Amino acid sequence: MGECHMPRPDLTINLAPAPLTLTVVAEKLGISASTLRTWERRYGLGPQRQTGTHRRYTVAEFELIQAVVELVRSGVSPSDACQSIQDANAVYHANQKTVCVNSIIEHAKASNATALHADLDILITRDGLLKTWSEYIQPALVALQTDPEGELPGTAPRALLSQMTLQVVREVANCKECQPKETNDAVVVVSDEPRSLLAHVIGVSLHWEGIPTRLMPALLPVTALHADVPSMLEKTRHLVTKLNAKILVICGSIIHNEAYLRELENTDLQLVLVGPARPNYLPANAIQMRTASGCVEEVVATLRGY
Fold first, then answer.
1. N or C: which end of the chain has fewer CB within 10 A?
2. Of residues 45, 28, 29, the one with CA closest to residue 37
3. Other C-beta atoms within 10 Å of 163: how many?
């Protein structure tokens, strides 16, 4: 992924940024206004406007010119730089129209990691990580898991999609905009193995909101053969204490482990249980959210006093 533009959860009305004047764009990019006029005249690289009106650059138009400036400074000629960036932009927008759940499934089945990465890159840049997860990645994972045609030996479409999802989530996490602030409002996310990818999505989304977050090493599904509550509690309490966490997010089958939840009930922690099925026992200090988006919004609202 290139520069990160992942939208935050829609907690407030997002107003479109005001367009930039020619002078402001020139100052921000460190080039002359006459150079911008020349590039517009020669290469068509400029804002959309009617003849006789002042130039006003949208964020997208500014970023396009910024990419050209970076290429020129690296030694590429202005004409080649403009052509390269405009071609890439055209391909991006053409692909943007065709990305859907089916294209993700097709690329995963074809073991086309490059195309799969491009799909997720486009979706996250356009719609944000949380919406991409809930409306595209999750449905694709479910479809691949229940595919009546099965899988060819040596292929693992669902595993590939999970791998590429984790890769782009990591790229989002590495964006400079995604660094948590220095604050005492830390969050711990606990999950079992099947929901570890969901935990990463929630964790990075909270980081994007400036909230320090740590994930517990994936715990095994809580079954009759594995119900080691004391061990789970010890690991949970250790990390919560170390970070002085205020909120504990719990994903997967663990939300149905009554013994684990009861032990966490008499604490100062706010519990956020994430899952579509209502747990058999809901502690007094817990709230259940059905989706990752709902979880992130609830945590942000709680810590910021909304």
1. C
2. 45
3. 15
* pLDDT, greater one: 219 or 261: 261
* Inter-residue contact 190 to 248 (CB < 8 Å): yes
Cα gap 45→194, rounded to integer Å: 48
**Phi then psi dihedrals of residue 208, to 5 deg:** -60, -30
pLDDT tens digits, 207-245:
888 899 999 876 655 554 455 788 888 888 999 999 899
Domains by residue range for the chain, with CATH: 20-89 (1.10.1660.10), 99-173 (1.10.1240), 178-304 (3.40.50.2300)
Is 285 exposed, middle or buried, given 0-12, 13-18 or 19+ CB atoms closer than 10 A?
A: middle
Q: What would the two tokens of residue 159 be?
A: 């595993």
Average pLDDT over residues 192-205: 91
Residue 172 corresponds to which tokens in the numbers above? 């989002």
8 Å CB contact between 292 and 198: yes
Within 10 Å of residue 274's Cβ, how many Cβ atoms? 25
Per-residue pLDDT of 167-178, as tens digits, reads: 999 998 888 777
pLDDT-based confidence at residue 266 (cuts at 50, 70, 90): confident
Give the per-residue pLDDT at 221.
Answer: 54
pLDDT at 187 over 50: yes
Burial state string for 170-186 with b = 16 or more CB within 10 A and e = fewer than 16: ebbbebeebebeeeebb
pTM: 0.69
